[in-house]
Design brief:
This protein is mainly beta and 293 residues long. The chain is built from 2 helices and 19 strands.
Length: 293
């Protein structure tokens, strides 16, 4: 965990009590849903293999592939995304979520040995602005992270699209999660897909505002009955690090509580096995993240 990430967690301590008393939340009526269709490609290399990978996606219910008609992916919340990705002979369904405030999105899909994540921004007109593709290739017991730049391009998707092989974050957890405060810590949002999420934090003090964005890929989700454990991966240069979280849902799955597992005094692990083995939860109540729809 680098110093910036530590600072963000420390700052969040000062706001949780206020949030618990104010009960900050939001509803889908706070922002309009966007209409968009975007497509693009990236060229993979290294252990991810070689060749171009194509994708096409849109906001919920707006994705279709001619001449076969609509190809719907069922989700349960507003601000959801659906689409498809084609990698050589593999065509797989994408799904995820977007933030209509930041015009930002994340989608994902996976097989038993490959995981695909696309994180991107839309411009003010709902068109492609920029994006990054992340591919994870199962290597032994770990999932190293490889990032590739994405180019906007009109694409044609062929082949029969399959569903993801593994079970990621449950469908009811997809969507946009948010915590707001009128205090100097201005906001915290999660944009969630089955195998990824984007964490955005905004810190404002005096007349200055800092924005931080973290892209996390989910490599394992375990249903513990009453809560979920999940492990995320992210790259630090050429190294992949892992973090483990306990996630609980309440109030009809409209509230999400996230608690970190600790690796001694740190939050990151060098291997998935080390993350899985830990049972030590961060018990500091000010660092527990509580978000609402």
């Amino acid at each position: 965990m680098n110093n910036i990430r530590k600072l963000l967690y420390i700052i969040s301590l000062l706001t949780l009590t206020l949030l618990l008393f104010t009960g900050c939340s939001f509803t889908p009526e706070d922002t309009p849903e966007r209409t968009f269709i975007i497509s693009g490609k990236f060229t993979k290399n290294g252990i991810a293999g070689s060749g171009d990978v194509f994708f096409k996606l849109a906001n919920k219910g707006n994705y279709s592939r001619s001449p076969e008609g609509p190809n719907r992916v069922i989700t349960y919340e507003s601000y959801s995304i659906e689409g498809e990705l084609q990698d050589n002979g593999l065509t797989i369904k994408l799904k995820g979520s977007y933030d209509p405030f930041e015009m930002q999105y994340t989608v994902s899909a996976d097989t038993s040995t490959l995981r695909y994540v696309i994180n991107g921004f839309l411009n003010s007109n709902g068109n492609f602005k920029e994006a990054t593709a992340t591919v994870l290739v199962k290597t032994g017991d770990n999932w190293p992270v490889l990032d590739f730049s994405v180019a906007s391009e009109t694409v044609t998707i062929t082949g029969t699209a399959i569903d993801s092989d593994n079970i990621g974050i449950p469908d009811f957890a997809l969507g946009l999660w948010r915590r707001n405060s009128s205090f100097f810590f201005s906001g915290l949002t999660y944009i969630v897909s089955p195998f990824s999420y984007i964490l955005n934090e905004t810190i404002s003090y005096d007349d200055y505002v800092d924005y931080y964005t973290f892209y996390q890929t989910i490599v394992k989700v375990v249903d513990k009955t009453g809560y979920y454990d999940f492990i995320v991966a992210y790259s630090v240069g050429a190294t992949t690090k892992y973090e483990k979280y306990k996630v609980e849902f309440s109030k009809g799955n409209s509230r999400m509580i996230i608690v970190s597992y600790l690796n001694g005094n740190k939050l990151d692990f060098n291997t998935i096995a080390a993350a899985e083995a830990t049972t030590s939860l961060d018990t500091n109540p000010f660092r527990i993240q509580t978000l609402s729809r």
